[in-house]
Write a structure and sequence with these properties.
Length: 166
């Protein structure tokens, strides 16, 4: 069963949840072969039980928080996420295609900078809530480049050199 996982992290991003659950978005997801939409809604004011559309055959499941999202990410064929660095990097490290949705209501929006850079490097698609449906309709996930794995040993070596530890 092809599935989409949506995460807002620990924040409240009602506009993203509403955008991905609108009938137009659900119809596009269904047309692309997705059968399940799993929502991590955080502090969302919307009632998760009321999300979804009876006219679309996409099963919608929602929860607020879990200790770990690793299993949800592992099961997902596509991830739609807020632009938090932790959520983006965890998704990319798992090799999942990612659409980053910018929260335009944030001031001093560093998340936009992150999304633009990851997009420029070819790792993600990004949009805002009002262009999510268009992004879903036009997405070519095969063009996304794998995110290079981290190299913590290089960082440790750097710290050793900085502090004179051999």
């Amino acid at each position: 069963m092809k599935s989409v996982f949506v995460t807002v992290g620990t924040t409240s991003f009602d506009d993203l949840i509403a955008a991905v659950c609108c009938p137009a978005a659900l119809q596009v997801l269904q047309s692309l072969g997705y059968e399940k939409l799993v929502l991590q809604v955080g502090r969302c004011a919307l009632d998760p039980a009321l999300l979804g559309s009876p006219d679309v055959a996409v099963e919608v499941e929602a929860f607020r928080y879990k200790e770990s999202l690793a299993e949800d990410l592992r099961r997902a064929d596509l991830v739609i996420s807020h632009a938090g660095a932790g959520s983006c990097l965890e998704t990319l490290e798992k090799g999942k295609p990612l659409i980053v949705v910018i929260n335009e209501k944030l001031m001093n929006n560093h998340q936009l900078e992150l999304a633009k850079q990851l997009h420029k490097d070819g790792h993600v698609l990004y949009c805002n809530c009002s262009t999510l449906v268009e992004t879903l309709q036009s997405m070519e996930l095969s063009t996304l480049k794998p995110f290079p794995p981290g190299e913590p040993e290089k960082f440790a070596l750097f710290l050793d050199q900085v502090f004179g530890i051999q």
